[in-house]
Design goal:
The chain is an alpha/beta fold. It has three domains: 65 residues, Winged helix-like DNA-binding domain superfamily/Winged helix DNA-binding domain (Arc Repressor Mutant, subunit A), CATH 1.10.10.10; 115 residues, D-Maltodextrin-Binding Protein, domain 2 (3-Layer(aba) Sandwich); 101 residues, D-Maltodextrin-Binding Protein, domain 2 (3-Layer(aba) Sandwich), CATH 3.40.190. The strands form four sheets. The chain has a six-stranded mixed β-sheet. A hairpin with a 4-residue loop joins strand 1 and strand 2.
Length: 313
């Protein structure tokens, strides 16, 4: 078995979660799959998988090698497509990443529709609340909610989101609403670590001008997911910060109300980004063409700005 075949066996084994699952997927015997991985480990001089009777677990070296294998196999698939003149039909594996809640609410439905339209494509959707290095981690398309530095990535503008401070009507009825940011010191607050990693919440100067305001709060609860923080706010436990798309449904339903609107920070841009070389790939072009209008609608944005900006990776 050559090196590329062994890499494919390794990836399929990890994705299937077992040697037997990989054997079924590849039409090989369990012993052949095991021998391929063992030979790969011997060639590399490192252990890639810890095997037990119940499960397989990646070593640190195995996790790093897995990312490389995915990228190499994806690029090989595209190279073969070019050679056989079938690049115009989207095919292969498309890897997309997005923030967890935005991805679950808005990106996953686009991926579903994309797969339904392109039978020769498989997809990986990575929902992560961290900045992923697009090039190093073999990502085809990423959704970024941030101001982007200059680099070689292509970015398509999708719209903006705002950071909103909000609470339930019940909480406001019982405790009142702060008239300016410093009033938060007297209120029960709910922290969301991905958006407010410290206990200092920053606000714009407000209608009278002046400087931005940083307010020290003492959260009665700190949650590591937006859903958790929003759920506790809806339950009347306190005031929280969230991005506009995260609480859009609650604001429409009236289970949360916005506070301190004149002091909201400037909106954050949302972009769809991908490496410039990916524009040669039919699978990426087709996804960008489908995702761009759908995500602009989701954000209430009709801008068609496309520009070359960068993201370091």
């Amino acid at each position: 078995m050559d090196r590329l075949e062994a890499m494919e066996v390794f990836v399929v084994t990890v994705d299937g979660g077992s040697l037997s699952g990989a054997a079924r997927a590849l039409g090989r015997s369990i012993a052949a799959v095991s021998r391929a991985i063992t030979a790969l480990e011997e060639r590399l001089g490192v252990q890639l998988l810890r095997r037990s009777t119940r499960a397989l677990k990646l070593t640190d070296a195995g996790a790093r090698y897995l990312d490389v294998c995915r990228r190499v196999l994806a690029e090989l698939s595209e190279a073969e497509a070019v050679a056989s003149s079938v690049l115009e039909a989207p095919q292969g594996v498309l890897t997309v990443t997005a923030p967890v809640m935005f991805g679950a609410l808005h990106v996953r439905p686009v991926v579903d529709a994309y797969l339904a339209a392109h039978a020769r494509v498989r997809a990986r959707l990575l929902l992560l609340d961290r900045v992923v290095n697009v090039v190093d981690e073999g990502i085809d398309v990423a959704i970024r909610i941030a101001h982007l530095p200059d680099s070689a990535l292509v970015a398509t503008s999708l719209g903006t989101v705002r950071r909103i401070v909000c609470a339930s009507p019940d909480y406001v009825a019982r405790h009142g609403r702060p008239s300016e940011p410093r009033g938060l010191a007297e209120h029960r607050c709910i922290g969301f670590t991905a958006l407010t990693p410290s206990e200092s919440w920053t606000f714009a100067p407000g209608p009278d001008g002046g400087r931005a305001v940083a307010v020290k709060v003492k959260p009665v609860l700190t949650v590591n997911t937006a859903e958790g923080a929003i759920g506790s706010a809806v339950a009347g436990q306190g005031i929280t910060c969230a991005l506009s798309y995260q609480v859009a449904e609650q604001l429409r339903a009236g289970t949360l109300v916005p506070l301190l609107v004149p002091f909201e920070p400037a909106p954050w841009p949302v972009h769809l980004v991908y490496p410039a070389r990916s524009t040669a790939s039919a699978k990426v072009r087709a996804f960008v063409e489908m995702a761009t209008p759908a995500l602009r609608r989701a954000l209430g944005e009709r801008s068609k700005t496309r520009r070359r900006v960068g993201v370091d990776g």
